[in-house]
Amino acid sequence: MSNSLDQSSPMEFAEATQWQLMWRRFKKHKVALLSLYIVLLFYVVAAFSEFFQTYDPEETSRRDVFHPPQMIRLFEVNDAGNRQFRPHVLGMNLERDPITLASNYAVDPEERIYVTLFGRSDPYLLLGFIPMERRLIAAVDSDEKFFLFGADRLGRDMWSRTIAGTRVSMSIGLVGVALSLFLGTLIGGMAGYLGGWVDAVSTRAIELILSMPTIPIWLGLSATIPPNIDPLLRYFAITIILSLIGWTELARVVRGRFLALRTEDFVTAARLDGASPKRVIFRHMMPSLVSHIIASVSLAIPAMILAETSLSFLGLGLQQPTISWGVLLQESQNIRSIAQAPWLFVPGAFVMLVVLALNFLGDGLRDAADPYSQHSI
Amino acid sequence: MTTNQPILEVKDLVTAFQTRHGDFNAVDNVSLSLTPGKLMCLVGESGSGKSVLSRSILQLVDKPGKIVSGEILLHDAHPAASSDKVETLDLAALNPRGSVMRNIRGRDIAMIFQEPMSSLSPVHKIGNQIAESAMLHEGISKSQAMERAVDMLRQVEISNPEKAVNQYPFEFSGGMRQRAMIAMALVCSPKILIADEPTTALDVTIQAEILDLLQNLKQTHNMAIMFITHDMGVVAEIADDVAVMKNGKIVEVGGVRDIFSNPNHGYTKSLLRAAQDTQKPSDRRIEIRRARPLGDPILSAKSIGKEFLSSHGFLGLKKETFVAVDDASFELREGESLGVVGESGSGKTTLARCIQRIHGIDRGELHYRNRAGVETELSRLRDKELQPTWREIRTVFQDPFASLNPRMTVSQIISEPLLLNGMTSKRQRRDRVEELLDLVGLPVESMERFPHAFSGGQRQRISIARAIAPEPRVLIADEATSALDVSIRVQIMDLLLELQHKLNISYIFISHDVGLVRFFCDRVMVMYKGKIVEAGDTESVCTDPEHPYTKALLSAVPITDPSERGTKVRHRYVADLSDVSANGSV
In this complex, which of B356, B407, B421 lies closest to A287 when CB atoms are compared? Predict the structure, then answer.
């Protein structure tokens, strides 16, 4: 890494834009770079989630209630005694304990379900309008079923459900933050640039909102959503509720940056050059702010994701048939799931992974955003 | 007393900073020695390694810096606390965090820093801060140490020291804090005092007092002082010996009179020339005036005033204001350079911002006669109505790092005023930017670069190019050269003079440096606490000041000639003793 930096001539450095300098600094932050890849991967999965699912997430199967996860084995020993590459999972048979009548799955080493990349599956619509018949991982014999993350109490495939939940959970972060960002930059920007009573009123409002305990407010607001409302409408109602509180943090950041920048000599110079207030804000101040805003946005998304997860977990956020990680975790609210089907917690691991990755990414961006930090470039 | 025996000898010292491109020797093979009762001045420009050298002696170099080789011999060192045993030690060989080094710091070698605001702890009383070092190093009791603190404060001429020991740093003015710092440094009677630019952050009148104080203490305590500065005037005023540093090396050492009368190294000569040039009127300016006499007044201020709200009071009921500019009247003629001098807080910058109409004007009138001869009253106009005037009155800001947008290229920065004033053709703008860069002495290749690629002096040239882009008639230079090194300062001043010659610009030149104003300005206004106390031709004000404050200010300016040392009578302006009034004892 440092090698490639050393090779860059002084000329290149002199003509590097702030974005290029920022990217160079960001690249040095290895954890943040890894997090960036993880986050990007999650958004790709969220966008094309149908393709990454193995089955329809709504498809129930009475024979596969609480089916345990199966691991893909890449090699098998064939009849001639040679190892050969044939990815497969071992089949499992349901057995009932004759005394306690408890159901148990036993591995059957003889029964192999072969899987393949880009295998044929039931027809589905990618993104809701592109008809497709192939999925990333599918059984060679499309009648056979396999469960990478196990199955839930209705025999639905947890892998497919978790992947399907990615779309809602990841997008609710983006949509909610987009709304927060709009409110936050508008209100924070006006407060910071105009000052005076606008600043006083909005700052007091922000303080008031921040002083309210968030969980009860969310609970109260989401309780007002009618229970039989269309799932899509409910989704938007929840994002609005989340961003009603989420904008305050962003507004504070933006206001602070505006206040600091407003008195900078280069902003005064722009005013004297004859730039209108609009031009001063968008041409001269905004470019210095964008990187900071991106950094605080990437720190706000995980908060949104966590908020949605908590609300849905408590049963007041999104509801069946919408699938989100929070909704999936609702299934793991009882002792039975801990004892019998611990794989129902898998969506929780996804939440943690995404939140951690986004936080590291945000930290890395924030460190890289400051053009005159002490780091050498 | 064997005064000729050195107390500290630095031999072939190398202090290096590790970088990706290999070691960078900030101090490169330096040898020098300090003698008791002598003051050695270390001069050089920023980045020459002065501070690193002084910090190396105390083993205070920040990482990744490290002493690589060489010796620092301290004679009569006290290696153990509370003991009078002395021996000769090589400080370079000691562990920077070891107890021996800790015992030497403060007791044998003390240091004072540039920034008196940040080198005292804000949450501890002055007395305790001074007493602490005595208690640590000499193991005396608290009451003894406090007595010592009172005594030290008396020695550094703080009035009413019994009261001052119980005060906090925020109750002290800048000059008093620097005195308290000196008291703290001297409490264990160190044999060596290292002063790193101790007066740079202070006003010139206070600087003169601190220099006097150090001079006295040097004699009474028979101390060796190492005084770091970039100001040749200060050197001429106080030094016994001078060491000139450049790029980590000492290029010349000698007695102060020898160095000033007979400098050997080219760098010393250029430093001296830069310093002495700005002590007298610029020949070039006089030449320009002879070729083109001053024109009619174009800008006139009639008793303008500006107040700032300093406190809203409870619910905005009891508003308190601070008068930053009070009843200022002046005229600026075409092609003239008008200087404004005063110390920090005197309202110079506020006045500049009022004239530029960055701030509103609360009282009075400001008339401007534009190129077409139409006179406008500016004090009540709004931003939109000011646009045509803003094309003709422009400002160059003080800090070259804050005044250029880091996200724009040089060509974007310079063409911004052109674009906004209706030059819409891209080609035309490009040609004009090239022309402007050429005018301020920067290569055309600079166009596509960003400000971070330029040094302070180059950035100031970019700033000037932006300011003169719309062909202004008045240019306000607000401390435009004070952030720059001496040699670069002279270049920028010459550039401004050339621009005046070519473009017939009038300057309002704001500075705290009387020498620069004398060099550059035809007339000067002296500001004190928001008021213009004296105005007139620069030469007559400088040679025959009328107002007592002007006298005090001029007598405090160090003269760059050691042979004239002590010939000047120092005036003190009584109302200026804010040190005393802040103390509450008057």
Answer: B407
Locate the domains of chain B by residue range.
109-189, 283-293+335-360+381-558
Residue A4 lies in a domain: no
**Assigned superfamily of B283-293+335-360+381-558:** P-loop containing nucleotide triphosphate hydrolases (3.40.50.300)
Residue A272 lies in a domain: yes
Single out the residue in A114, A149, A184 at which a domain terminates: A149
Task: Specify the number of domains making up chain A.
Answer: 2
* A246/A345 same-domain check: yes
Q: What is the ipTM of this complex?
A: 0.77
Q: List, for residues A51-74, the tens digit of each pLDDT value.
A: 888 888 888 877 777 888 888 878
Interface residue A288 vs chain B (CB under 8 A) = yes
Same domain as A268, residue A308: yes
Per-residue CA distances from A89 to A54, A138, A344 (Å): 14, 11, 20
Tell whether A286 is covered by a domain.
Answer: yes
Instruction: Note whether B128 and B167 are within 8 A (CB).
Output: no
List of chain A residues whose C-beta atoms are within 8 Å of the C-beta of residue B407: 17-18, 287-288, 371
For residue A203, the enclosing domain spans: 162-369
What local confidence, expressed as pLDDT, does residue B315 receive?
63
Q: Is A59 within the bounds of a domain? A: no
* Mean pLDDT to the nearest integer, A244-262: 84
Does any CB of chain A come closer than 8 Å to the CB of residue B405? yes
**C-beta atoms of B399 and A279 within 8 A:** no
Q: What is the mean pLDDT of chain A?
A: 80
User: B336: distance to nearest CA of chain A, Å?
Assistant: 22
CA B396, B401, B402, B405 torsion-angle sign = positive
**pLDDT (0 to 100) of residue A7:** 38
